[in-house]
Specification:
seven-stranded mixed sheet; 3 domains; 11 helices; Beta-Lactamase
């Protein structure tokens, strides 16, 4: 990819200043934000951080072989390579990294998972659902990164944009069709995930945390909300409904509670055709709530099919194994978390009888 092609990824944020055509024709070998890691031919992106201004390291990046610099500040004296001024260097980095690696998220079903607690458990569940459905799934999270058969320790929950898009490109090369990705509030606030196309979003919960970075809880929530503002209009979002429901919602909640009492069932959820959870019976159980969120986030709504969730880990702690049975009823789907040893066929028959009775009532 040439510098001109890469700069074109900035769209209406691209610079107005003229750049030498010969420079624009030069090939770019990578996108870097740390001058110490610049390789010959790289495009160096300098942002202003909490403790340092990346533009101060531009000369070092050029000495190491950078062919151009993207920064929020004007060109300093002594830097002779093309200097591209932008208003938001972090946003530019995300756009440039996505373009350099060929927008890999567009070829993956990326499920973004955010929330204070439960992201790791839910990401394992999402990955397992995809694998059970026959789709190899990569994983990006707090504990580990998984690319095909390779797995290695994570450096941070959500990598910076060049590493993020690079890992997704490797996932595609390894035969992955999906990616379960933890998206931290830091990453959302710092725009690491900009430029990604999410197939679905999952919100686990919000409790008091990370106020050393976010100004207050409102700021923290706004960062989490960005994930859902980034979703395509047709992408399912999976926030769990609160335990307390309005009078109008109560009948559906009663259906979920009734299904959960069927022999062989540990929990139930009702999901609308657009992927939104209508009601569920799993309040207060983090593992089961994670199963619900993963079920919806993976868009595993396939009527009549059973998906084994296998055994899952929260770090090194095993969570219960389980199976989700999916049934279609009227204009929504029913997901039943089966008890160990529960017979899918028997549970399906009992559930259909219960649902017919509930509809008649």
């Amino acid at each position: 990819m040439t510098l001109g092609e890469l700069v074109g990824a900035l769209g209406d944020r691209r610079p107005r200043e003229a750049i030498d055509p010969a420079a624009l024709a030069r090939p770019v070998t990578g996108v870097a934000y740390d001058s110490r890691r610049v390789q010959p031919g790289a495009l160096f992106v300098a942002w202003t951080g909490q403790h340092a201004d990346g533009a101060a390291f531009a000369a070092d990046a050029v000495d190491r072989g950078a062919v151009a610099v993207v920064a929020e500040r004007p060109r300093p004296a002594g830097v002779t390579v093309p200097w591209i001024t932008v208003t938001d260097a972090r946003e530019a980095l995300a756009r440039l990294a996505a373009a350099f690696f060929g927008h890999p998220a567009g070829d993956l079903q990326v499920v973004g998972i955010t929330g204070t607690n439960g992201k790791t458990t839910t990401s394992y569940l999402v990955g397992s659902i995809f694998e059970a459905a026959g789709t190899r799934c990569g994983l990006l999270g707090t504990v580990t990164y998984r690319v095909g058969e390779r797995e290695f320790l994570a450096t941070r929950t959500t990598p910076e944009a060049p590493e993020l898009h690079g890992l997704m490109r490797q996932m595609i090369d390894a035969g992955c069709g999906a990616c379960a990705m933890e998206v931290s509030s830091h990453a959302l606030a710092l725009r690491r995930a900009d430029g990604l196309r999410f197939a679905a979003g999952v919100f686990t919960n919000l409790t008091r945390d990370h106020l050393d970075f976010h100004a207050n809880m409102e700021d923290y929530f706004a960062a989490k909300r960005r994930l859902f503002e980034m979703l395509p209009a047709d992408a399912p979002a999976a926030p769990l409904p609160p335990a307390a429901v309005s009078k109008a919602e109560a009948p559906m909640s009663e259906v979920a509670q009734g299904l959960a009492k069927i022999e062989g069932v540990e929990g139930a959820l009702l999901v609308a055709e657009d992927g939104v959870v209508i009601a569920h019976s799993l309040e207060g159980d983090p593992d089961k709530e994670g199963a619900v969120a993963a079920f919806v986030g993976a868009a595993a709504v396939q009527a009549g099919e059973t998906m084994s969730l296998g055994r899952f880990k929260r770090g090194s702690v095993a969570s219960p194994s389980g199976t989700i049975l999916v049934l279609r009823h009227q204009d929504y789907y029913v997901g039943l978390l089966l008890a160990e040893g529960g017979s899918p066929s028997l549970v399906a028959s009992r559930a259909e009888t219960f649902l017919e009775g509930a509809a008649a009532a």
